[in-house]
Structure formats: C-alpha cells, structure tokens
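Co-fold these.
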Amino acid sequence: MELSQAARLDQAAEVLPAALRRRVLALPAAERARIEELRLRGGRPMFLLGPEGETPLPGTEITAQTLETVLEMASRSSVHTVLDQVRNGFVTIPGGHRLGLCGTAVMDGKTLVNLRGISSLCLRVARQFPGLASEVLPKLWQDGRLESTLILSPPGAGKTTLLRDLIRCLASGLGCPPLRVGLADERGEVAAMAGGVPMLDVGQRCDVMDGCPKAVGMAALLRGMDPQVLAVDEITAPEDVQAMLQAAGCGVRLLATAHGETLADLDRRPLYRSLMADGLFDRLVLIQQTDAGRRYTVTDGEGRPC
Amino acid sequence: MLKLLGGLLIMAGALWCGVSAVERLRRRVRVLEDLRASLVWLSEELTFRRSPLPKLLEQLARERSGPVELFYREALAGLSQDPEGGLQQSWRRAMVLQLDFLREEERQVLVEVGKTLGRYDAGAQAQVLAQAARRLETIRAQAGEEARGLGRVYTALSLAAGAALVLMLL
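Predicted complex below.
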C-alpha cells in the first residue's frame, strides 16, 4: 500500500490522544510531509522534528497522563505484547513507525525490566522513498554478483529507509536481476508486517521473519526459506555477527546496517571490528547529512571509493 | 365455565411468575459459568499466545452467546470508539450495560480483572484471570445451589399464591 509522507505521519499520529492528533492533522500537508519525528516531553510542548531541527507546536503541553495514554494506545491496551520492546527502549507500531521511550527504569539486578514512569516519547515516522537506492545499487554489484553490503550512519540518518529500498529493488529485480531476499525484521520496522502482509514495500521476492531476535530470524530464514540475500537492520549483538558469519559461509549475500559515521568507527567497536576482520562485507555505504541533504558514499571493504 | 377459565388463567399467570423468577436464577448460573470459562480461555491465550486484547475480545464476542457475547462485544466497541479511555474504562462500561443483573460480589471480580487486563505482563494477567475464574466458580456453585433451592420454593409459592387468589375470588 503506497502512502504519501504526510499520510504516513497521519498514520503514526493515530497513537496520539485526540487533542494532539487534531493539532498534527491540522498542519498543512507539505509541512506534515517534512516531519520526521514527533517529540513528546513531560511538562513541555510537543516538538516537530524536520530537516531544520526541532520546532515546538504551541498549545500542546504534554502531561504525564498524555505520555501514559500514548503508550497504552500504541500497545492497543495490551502492554504484554510490547513488553520485550519496552525493555529495549522502543515500541514498533502499525505501519512500522517507532515509538522511542524514556523514563524511570525498573531494574532487576542489571537488567531493565520495565519503565515505571515515562518522561519522554519520540514518535519516529517510517519513511519510504522508492528509488532512493537507485544511485547506490549499481555500485554494489561486481562481476554480475551482489556484494555483501554494510550501511553505516549515525542514528536517524536513514539507514533503515535505504535498506528497505535496496531490499525492494533486489527482491523485485528493479535495476538488477531479481533475487530472493530473506529479511530478519526483529523490530518490524523494515517491512511493518500486519496479518502476514508487509505494510511497507519490500519487493516481490522478500520473505520476512519478524518478532524474534535477529540471530534467531536469520537462522530460521536460512533453514526454511533458502534466501539468496539475507537482510538485517542494525547489528547490535555478537549473536547477530555469528548468524551472519554462518550465512556467509553458506554463500548467502548479506545486507545489513550499523551505527557509525566513518570507517574508523567500525574499528573502534569490537563487535564491528570482528565483522570487518572476517571480511564479511565487500561494500560499505556511508550516509552523511549535508546541507544539500543526505549523501551516499560507497566504498569497498578497504575504504576505496567504488 | 367462565369462573373455571378465569381460575385457570390466574393459576397460569402465577406459575409464569414463579417460573420466570426461577429462570432468572438459572440464567445467572449460566452466565457465571460462561464468564468463568471465558476468563480461563483468556488466561490460556495470554499465557501461550500473548495476543493483543482487542483480538481476544473479538474472538470471545464471536464464540460466546447471550449476555457474555454482548459484554465482550460492548467492551471491544468501547475500546475502538475511545482508545484513549483504555480497556479498563470500556470493560467497566460494558459490565454496567450488559451484565447489570450480576450481584456486587460478581461485579467486583470483573472490576478487578478490568483493572489488570492489558496493563501488566502476560503472566501477571493470567494469574489474576485464574484467580477470578476460581472465585467465579465458587460463586457459580453457590448460585446453582440457590437456584435449585429457591427454584422449588418459587414454584411452590407461585402455585400456592395462585390457588389462594382463585379461592378468594370464588
């Protein structure tokens, strides 16, 4: 289902209480289309985050009750369905939008088990820009073969959006031969599955495993769906790396994203260092925010431009 | 002949009053049993599937009948119309609208369930549901005894009252 960016914001705003939702929907469509996040902080007005930064929306004072209500609506009055996500600091809502959570943590030893009081929420609108990957995609092929690729950028710079469009192109054979893509979508942000159908376009030959840790999803996809490409958003744990190594050993090409700004960032973090040392990725895509917008730089595993 | 017909009508009316009183008692037993079974089912679904509550309420409304079906349907409709109010509010409203014949003790059991549903992890919810189901089972057993005992009394009283009225009018 194709939705405009303004319509995506409207969809995300369904978790807001009626008074706040009305204020958001009353904004002009062009302005709504530019909004990337809605920021709700206790005792302050709601802020709209666009390319220029955060601007307050006057007359939208956020109370503790508002924050609780948003979480209740986001979980459809079923906290038990999102508790695992709450422990990770976010909840994915229908449409693939992400509700980031911040508040007073309830700890069990060293483990965060819940949030007692919520102090801030960040509603990030899932964005889909068909064609975004067209500039990058040709550089990911070598001798008629897709190279395993890692997308690298700071948070909020568009890793997931680029990954989604790359998957869409590969799985539909747009600008390249079609490939069977297995997507381990732990947080449900890439495909936003609902009733077995992806709400965001991930192409014709994409099989999605969601609602489970990435490593478990990747292993299940490898065993059951025989993917030619395995895609995963945000490598964060050693288990993810192990699962990717196993997949690479089976001849499957990899598409993944990670937090970082430069190649040097990969070297600084032990998890990513091991990824690069094992030569898992032959291509790196760096996303940089510039005044003119986002810039994509593709290099090989050694950092040489492609 | 007319007197005989009138007497029969009075007796039939009195008996109908008694039978409908007995039927109210029996209906309460049936509803309590249906509610208990639905809470057990909810508890199991939450434990093993962890499905969202709107989906579970929808399924309950589809699979149950009578006042219990209407109760779950009302709770679901309330949640859809006013998601800000949350499940606790729509649950309580549905109880007032569709299960108004329940007694205070039974209402309290359901109110406690409404306070818990959707607000805690699946294990805690299942625990409260299981406790509520056990409590309803006890109440249902008592209600069954009451329906049997009072049923006979109501039937006998209605017949006796009818007969007395007929004798007085003759």
